[in-house]
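Researcher: Go.
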Amino acid sequence: MIQTEILCQSPIFRGISPEELSELFNQIHFQVKTYQKSDLITIGGEICDRLLIIQQGSVKAEMTDYSGKTIKIEDMSAPWPLATAFLFGKENRFPVTVSATSDVEMVSIPKPEFVKLLQLNALILNNYLNTISTRAQFLSQKLKFLSFKTIKQKIAHYLLEKAGDRLQTVEVQQSQGQLAEMFGVTRPSLARALGEMCQEGLIETDRRFIKILDKNRMNLLLKG
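Model: Structure:
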């Protein structure tokens, strides 16, 4: 069963009331699919011919590089849409493999039915355009991050992005294990790189807080 109270909080349907959204969904064909924890939802490379929106639960998106190493791209939870930037275009394929990290309900809207929604409501069209622009910017930043070859470069980029121009100290919400998964490295390798950066006078660590001691040297590290 569709839960419009949740879906109207999605970036695709933001600004639309649950009642109005229910009326719109009555005019299209869609499915609500259920998945158990660890189930595969999409496989990277398969045709993206439907808009998927998480109605309940959470998922993770991963990508495998040419060496076979799996890198986590991001975690997503309800009511986030999947692969919005890849629904249209010549190579409209899912860019990542998505699997459930909890029990999941997923609303699946076939591409022609979603086009009908866009034609029925201008706010949905505007929301969708904003969403794909935001996703394109996110993916651009992610590709830049993945282009760094060393763990230290990835750490430096991550910290400098979070710190911006004003902050010197960054609070890291993720555990070392989660950071290692995000960077596509092992936890011991990440811990070793952090330790070396401390010894080199680049950073200081205090539990979840990391202080950047020399932003200029950190930026030079990125230039490799």
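Model: The longest helix spans residues 122-146.
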